Amino acid sequence: ASTRDATTINTNENSDNRRSVVESRRRNSQSSGPMCTSTRLVLLLIEACPSAVSVRTKTGFKNCFKTPFHIACEADADYRVLRAMLSIHPSLAVQPFVTSADVMLLYQHHNAVENPLQLLWRNNHQHYNSSRSNISNHQGHHHHGDKALKEKMALLLEAAHMGTVHRSLDHDGNPPFRLLNGACSVRCPRDYLALVLKDHADQICEKDERGLLPLHYAVRNAEGLESQTYTQFVIDSLLEACPEAAAVKDEHGRLPLHVAVGDVGLTWHKGGVQELALGYTDALRTFDPQSGLVPFLQSAVHAIHSRLHLSTTLELLLAAPEMVQPTQAAQRRQQQEAPPVAQLY
Question: What segments bear the compositional bias annotation Basic and acidic residues (predicted)?
């Protein structure tokens, strides 16, 4: 009896999971157009085995270790297929093709480790660009492809930034998803980010429900030395449109420069630190409420890692040399530890 009850519980759980996928598929069927046979088949497979969407190939599919979601993005799968997969595992939106253990082994065979956002855009951007400039009799068809690509990219960004694809302000009272915040939270193709900046310029200086600007998300989600040139591009683009963003503190009272040099370890010449420092010079003299240090001292912690970090510390110090003066507490310690004058003779 207990075995039969356990089987019943598992069956019910699987049924609930499948019903969730079916409901997700039904919600999108109205706006995504007619469903072809291959799309219907893939959705049935997802419904039958939801856990399969995150299983990577073991032997290296086309020299990469991919999940079905990676392959779906590469094949430009229907929006409903992508949404059904992300409704099960939203993190699939930004998972790279290879795991960290595989990167060094496969590095010689890949120019970069792409995430699904980059793959989806790379495989479609030529079509997208042609759709925007095409003025032939097929303009309506290209416009549909233009819209479909935008919707897919927005879907992946929502899953990555919000952790779900089921948010709805009208029905659930949840805060709205800001596309620019999502684009600044993960690594996107540069031309796509430039497009989002252009189409959503009103969001550049707009705080979300947490009091954060796109610049805050761009800085705190930077991926380290290997992508600092990209981070510099994002920071520079945001500050060019909204210079005052460099002076806006986050929910912890920290400036973007504090997070950039203290938490992420961005650098002066390639990581956007120069842009942040010159965008709001008072930040150079502002103590980080978390570490209690000024930016040049925050950067000094990372100076042992590379010449770029050492150079960053020097540049921050040269930009505010007066901050090298000892604090009052340090001065008091020096006075207490100094021997009496009589002992010096």
Answer: 15-26
Cβ–Cβ under 8 Å, residues 174 and 214: no
Distances in whole angstroms, Cα of residue 16 to Cα of each of 19, 24, 102, 143, 167: 5, 12, 35, 38, 19
Average pLDDT over residues 251-258: 97
Per-residue pLDDT of 115-145, as tens digits, reads: 899 889 988 865 555 555 554 444 554 555 6
| Range with the poorest average pLDDT among 12-21, 56-65, 149-158 | 12-21
In whole angstroms, what is the distance from residue 1 CA to residue 9 CA?
12
Cβ–Cβ < 8 Å for 206, 223? no
Read off the pTM: 0.75
Task: Please name which of 50, 57, 116, 123 lies closest in space to residue 85, comparing C-alpha atoms.
Answer: 50
Asked if 218 and 225 count as a contact pair (C-beta separation under 8 A), the reply is no
> Which tokens sit at 186?
């993960």
Taking only the tens place, the pLDDT of each residue in 262-289 is: 999 999 998 899 999 999 999 999 999 9
**The length of the chain, given as a count of residues:** 345
Is the Cα dihedral 271, 177, 29, 24 positive or negative? positive
Cα–chain-centroid distance for residue 327? 38
In the chain, the domains with their CATH numbers are: 1-171 (no CATH), 178-333 (1.25.40.20)
Q: Which two tokens stand for residue 91?
A: 């993190």
